[in-house]
Amino acid sequence: MSDVMEPMIHEDQLPGHESELEPKPDWQPRYPGSGRLEGKVALVTGADSGIGRAVAALFAREGADVAILYLCEHDDAAKTKEIVEKEGRNAVTIAGDLGDKQFCERAVKQVVDGLGGLDILVNNAGEQHYDEDITSITEDQLKRTFQTNVFGMFFLTQAAMPHLKEGSAIINCTSETMYKGSPGLLDYSATKGAITAFTRSLSKNLVEKGIRVNGVAPGPIWTPLNPSGGQPPEKIPEFGKSTPMKRPGQPNEVAPSFLFLACEDSSYMTGQILHPDGGNTTQS
Fold this sequence. Notes:
Elements: E1 41-45, H1 50-61, E2 65-70, H2 74-86, E3 91-95, H3 101-115, E4 120-123, H4 139-160, E5 169-173, H5 177-180, H6 186-206, E6 212-216, H7 226-230, H8 251-262, E7 273-274
Helix pairs in contact: 1-2, 1-8, 3-4, 4-6
């Protein structure tokens, strides 16, 4: 589409490759599966690495087939596909820009055709660029951040709706920055506020269809997003240490929140946000 801006992958090395990150994030599920997603098909955006990879791994362990959507990190996506298949589940990898409505429509069709349906949509992918001065945020960056984080979420949800049914679940990834604010992530934080409002509004819009919509607001989690440009290099050694737990979280500490909201354990919850953030949002 001519009106779709190119993802900002040259300005600040975003998105990052987990295969190049040291130390490696912990994505491994911590417990044996109990079949909570048996027979389900899940589409997870940004599933090549970080939180998305951990979600894909845990969903597969719980019985789901998984569609792995990602931008361009083919090595990471192949590794996530291998992880899902080692759990005995089917996986497909689909590369493209979520900010392109036509791509989202093609991707959902590929998921449904390849895996036989769609039960769970996880809108996890996000774009983040660090700027402490609001005047240094370019118009292109502002548009691109909203295009990935907000427009992409709308486009993919719109494409998924004809395939979702009673009992389906949508889980959106917002952020602690929506609640605490972030002086260096002005555009990113604004998108996360929009995502939270979208989650709450969509939950009311779809409740009569039996489709639950909830969100997860992670705190500082060790993924490629931050060391690849989402934070300045000098801040990385202290990343996450300002939380009450004095450390960053790991992706496999966040994935169980997505699982809980995807399965029947949360059958009486919609429009809610979970906060795996090391206690950060308890601080004023």
